[in-house]
Write a structure and sequence with these properties.
heterodimer, A: about 110 residues, 7-stranded mixed sheet, 4-stranded antiparallel sheet, about 50% strand, B: mainly beta, about 0% helix, globular
Chain lengths: ~110, ~120
């Protein structure tokens, strides 16, 4: 199985801050990397697919980059509604695997 | 638009069988990959397995669960199911059904709301 490692596991930032979350795959996955946002009691919601493509309806302050084994999710200007847990997920092969999550809190 | 809804018992006894159903509304199941994902409390998301149906149905399970998992589909009723045998407390989780856009975005683009399953006597 491909192991996905996210860092940090949690962070606290102020409204307007630039926030970066990283995800590393245990082997190359080209650009088969997705990012999800999950709020308590809700299902995950896809934000970014294929490493850098913004899902329809997702605010443009979210962006993704990377290829191979190292990937980044950036929130350019953190908003109160962005308080959530973020997960990366590889779609290179099966079993599909997820990172352990990064909890983002608003100061 | 396509919507998914999970259903099933919220409590299952250890060593028994967990059975869940996902009902698909607002669209056809044919030509897509459909998936079960679970989320144990305090842990990460785990892919349980998926199937693809377009005439013939192909199933693909997580090797860690393969010996205990069966999925099935009824396209005439637009629903699919998950059966997990010999459950233990480690199978306690929120179970989600989702659509996997393999060959397109390769992401889980539509999810059910999730159903909590507790394994306890």
């Amino acid at each position: 199985d491909i192991q996905m490692t996210q860092s940090p596991s949690s962070l606290s930032a102020s409204v307007g801050d630039r926030v970066t979350i990283t995800c590393r795959a245990s082997q190359t996955i080209d650009n088969f990397l997705n990012w999800y946002q999950q709020k308590p009691g809700r299902a995950p919601k896809v934000l970014i697919y294929s490493a850098s493509s913004l899902q329809g309806g997702v605010p443009s302050r979210f962006s993704g980059s990377g290829s191979g084994t190292d990937f980044t999710l950036t929130i350019s200007s953190l908003q109160p509604d962005d308080s959530a847990t973020y997960y990366c997920q590889q779609s290179y092969n099966t079993p599909r695997t997820f990172g352990q999550g990064t909890e983002v809190q608003i100061k | 638009q396509v919507q998914l809804q999970e259903s099933g018992p919220g409590l299952v006894k250890p060593s028994e069988t967990l059975s869940l159903t996902c009902t698909v509304s607002g669209g056809s199941m044919s030509g897509y990959f459909w998936t079960w994902i679970r989320h144990p409390a305090g842990k990460g998301l785990e892919w349980v397995g998926r199937f693809y149906t377009s005439g013939r149905t192909r199933y693909n399970y997580n090797p860690s669960l393969k010996s205990r998992v069966t999925m099935a589909v009824d396209t005439s009723k637009n629903l699919f199911s998950l059966t997990l045998r010999s459950v233990t407390a480690a199978d306690t989780a929120v179970y989600y059904c989702a659509r996997d856009l393999v060959g397109s975005s390769n992401a889980f683009d539509i999810w059910g709301h999730g159903t909590m399953v507790t394994v306890s006597s």
